[in-house]
Amino acid sequence: MDKLISELTRLYLVPDSQAAQALAQRGGGGPCAPVDLVSDDGLTRAIAIPFRKAPGADEQHWEHLCTVANGLQEDFGFPAPAVSVASAGGFVLWLSLAVPVPVAAARRFVDGLARLWPDTLPDAAAVAVPVELPPCLNGATGTWAAFIHPGMGASFADESGLDMPPPVAGQVAFLEGLDSITAGQFDAALARLEPVAPAAPVRPSAAPARHDAGIPDGLLLKDATLEDIVRALHARDIEPTFRFVRMERPAQ
To answer: What is the C-alpha separation between 179 and 201, in angstroms, rounded?
Structure first.
C-alpha cells in the first residue's frame, strides 16, 4: 500500500494538500469518499476528465476517451495518461502535471480540448470537483473504482466499477510507468488551445477637413474684394491671370 500511495502522490497530489492527507489515512478495504484534488490555494496537479455513459450510447463514451487520450499524445506530445473505471460506471482520464497549475488554467485547457474535439468532452467545470482516487470502494454500490489497462477499456464499457478490490500490485504497475506533463508542454498546449480573438476591423481614418488658410469662413463672392479673390486663389495654389475674355457674339 505504501508503494501505491507513493505513486499516487508522485503523479496527482499537491504536497500537504487535503487529498494527500486523506490518502495517507485511507485504510485498506474500507469505503472511501471522493477527494478534492485542488489545494487550499487553488492549485492542482491532476486533471481528471470523466467520461460518463449516455443512455443508449453503447461504447461511445469509451471511444470519446480514446480520441482525447490518443490526440493528447499525438498532437501535443504528452506522455500517456492513466485511465480508471468509475465505481458508478464510465471512465476517468487522468492527466498528471509536473508543476501545479491554477484551476482556472486547467479548465481553460479542457475548454480548449472541447473546441478541438467537439461533442467529446464534458463541461470543464467537472475538472475541479471531488473525484474517486482509485482504488476506491463506493460504500453505496459496493463496487470499486480502479485503474485499468487502456487495452481493456472497451470490456468495461457497460460495467459499473469492479465487483472485487483490484490487486494493489496491479494498480502500482499501471502507475509506475507513467510520467507527468512538464510545465513547458502544458503551457505550449494551453497557448495552442486558447481561442483566437477576431481581428478588429480596420477603419480608414477620416480625411481631415480641408480648410483653406486665409479664406474667411462664409466669404461670398459678392462680398469679396479683388484682394480677397487673389488670396483665395493663392490658397488653392492658383496663380490668377487677369486677361480679358471676349464674349462670343451670336452669328448674324
So the answer is: 45
pLDDT tens by residue, 53-81: 877 667 889 999 999 999 999 999 999 99
The DSSP output letter for 103 is H
CA distances from 73 to 28, 105, 137 (A): 34, 20, 30
Which range has the worst mean pLDDT, 95-99, 115-119, 218-222?
218-222
Same domain for 227 and 129: no
Same domain, 125 and 233: no
DSSP assignment of 157-172, as one string? Answer: TT--SBSSPPPHHHHH
Is 130 among the domain residues? yes
Average pLDDT of span 227-234:
64
Residue range(s) defining the domain that contains residue 83: 2-193
Rounded Cα gap, residues 149 and 30, in angstroms: 24
pLDDT value for 229: 58
Residue 246, judged by CB atoms within 10 A of its CB (0-12, 13-18, 19+), counts as exposed
Element (H, E) at 44: strand 43-51
Residue 46 pLDDT exceeds 50: yes
Q: Residue 86 belongs to a domain with what CATH number? A: 3.30.70.3300
Rounded distance, CA 205 to CA 117, Å? 41
Read off the DSSP letter of residue 222: G
List, edge to edge, every strand of the sheet that includes 91-102: 43-51, 91-102, 82-85, 144-148, 136-137
Residue 37 to residue 18: CA distance in whole angstroms: 8
Return phi, psi of residue 113, to 5°.
Answer: -65, -35
9 with 69, same domain?
A: yes
